[in-house]
Amino acid sequence: MPAFWIRHESVTAATQSDAADEKIIARIRLVLGLAAFLSATAAVVRPGLPLMVMLGAYTASALALLMAAEADAHLPFQRAMHWADLLWCFLFLNLGNFDTGLFFLFFFFVILAAGLRHGFDEGAKAAVIAAIAYVFSTLNDYTTVDLPLIFVQTVFICALGYLIAQLGEQRLQMRRRIGLLRALAQPANPRLGVEHTITSMMERTRNYFAADRCVLVVGSADDGWCLRTVQGGSPLSVPPEPISAEAAAPFLTVPQDCTVLYRRRRMAMPLASYPNERRHWQTLAVMPCARIADLLETDSFISAPVLLSDKSGRIYVSRSHQPFARGDALFLTQAVAQALPVVENVALLDRIASEAVNDERQRLALNLHDTAIQPYIGLALGLAALRCKAAPDNPLGPELESLAAMVQSVIAELRDFAGSVARRDQGAPPQSMCGSALARLAVQMRERYGMDVRLDVQNRMELGDRLAAEVVQIVREGLNNIGKHTGAREGVVKVWLADRMLHIDIDNAAAKEPVASFVPHSIRQRAAVLGGQVRVHRESSATAVRVEIPI
């Protein structure tokens, strides 16, 4: 048998599992159709022609669907095929007088398909409708009605359908949990810093639980406490907000080593679990948890401890539309345990990189002092000596004084610049707002090249300082390329977020002459450092640079 391979980045695990489920469902459908058709053909009392035609048509359609599933073809109606199967089964039972137990199995096949595709809700709905369809079909024949048997079989369909739907829901839940754990183990883009990593993990956790907000409170008595809140529409990087010990105290009133589940509407007492000690769920005091719920503005929340190397705290996930279950609280603890080592590693790398940058800045400041400032100091001393040798009535005296003052001014400016280079923090670039920085850049391009730049920046798009600075530098380099290497006097810059990707388009709208083929090396290097890629599109005299950066 031949072997096959595929890059692990090409297809997600969830997509591969969906395709495998569709193949299993298609094979079961074909087996049931063939079995029903062959059973009807070999029966002593054969059914009528309409039923035989419908069985043949169903078998042929099942074969076609199996071929499409084996070819990994995506059909627009594929996710709702179980309702079509239920309709087929209903028609089989109401055509002719052919009686076979295979038609009874069709109902469970419909429930299985619905549960595998959509989970418990769709599977339970399919079970109820299948039971109703079975009762209607059996009561259609008033001559052979056996009410006790119909009741038992209806209950059997509902009970077994409930179990199948629960198994489908657990399978989908397991896949989603594995997907979240895998995402937490691989930070979105560690090059963007620890703040972006923590925000991304909190947003993924909030999306998984379909929660209103995710709140993280961490700190220590020596370093103080900080609060992060991630909710719908939050920026890509949420910086920590320093809070006092009194403000952090309500979130830390529950025992540090326990997992907490609180549901205001369904139970009066919150529950706590101690996974490390393998104890059962225990009740906690209501008032502290109710106060936390009021602060979170919710009726239900789950919480897990956060234990870092030098800090500790708790994470809270809250929602009001649906109460949490015990399994949700325990899984949150597992997810936090998976994410903490990644956060600490990214923080360590970020600290190492920051220290290396600071050392490099110190070296550059010293080199600037030795190679640029010292010669100017020597020039100033020479001018001073020359001024002393000149007679008081020398006509060059004023010029020498002016030149000496100019040299002293340059020395002061160089010293200020060297000091700013040595003191500047890599994590705090001057452009804190991407949109305003790009607007200033557009003004500079108009003054320098006479080029009109039209900006199209997505509304409410807030980037972290580090990523915003990189975006501004990429756009600056692209516009400089347009101004230096083309005759275009119109530029278009588009920046937007989609599918966890940051897209940057830099277009020269109307160049006067065809532009030679080129590769923006500096832009490509910046994008590569951030894990992105660059593509260049050329059409006659227009050129577009496309930059994509994963976030």
Care to describe what's here?
The chain is an alpha+beta fold and 551 residues long. The protein folds into 4 domains: 13-182, no CATH class; 189-350, GAF domain (Beta-Lactamase, 2-Layer Sandwich), CATH 3.30.450; 355-423; 434-550, Histidine kinase-like ATPase, C-terminal domain (Heat Shock Protein 90, 2-Layer Sandwich). The chain has 14 helices and 13 strands. The strands form 2 sheets. An 8-stranded antiparallel beta sheet has the order 3-2-1-8-7-4-5-6, with helices on both faces. A 5-stranded mixed beta sheet has the order 9-10-11-13-12, covered by helices on one side. α3 (81-94) runs parallel beside α5 (120-139) and α6 (147-185) packs antiparallel against α7 (194-208).
Short summary:
The protein is α+β, with helices and mostly antiparallel strands. The chain has helices spanning 13-42, 49-70, 81-94, 102-118, 120-139, 147-185, 194-208, 245-248, 286-296, 326-389, 397-423, 434-449, 465-485, 521-529, and strands spanning 213-220, 224-231, 241-243, 259-263, 271-273, 282-283, 300-307, 312-319, 452-457, 490-498, 501-508, 533-539, 542-550. It has 4 domains: 13-182, no CATH class; 189-350, GAF domain (Beta-Lactamase, 2-Layer Sandwich), CATH 3.30.450; 355-423; 434-550, Histidine kinase-like ATPase, C-terminal domain (Heat Shock Protein 90, 2-Layer Sandwich).
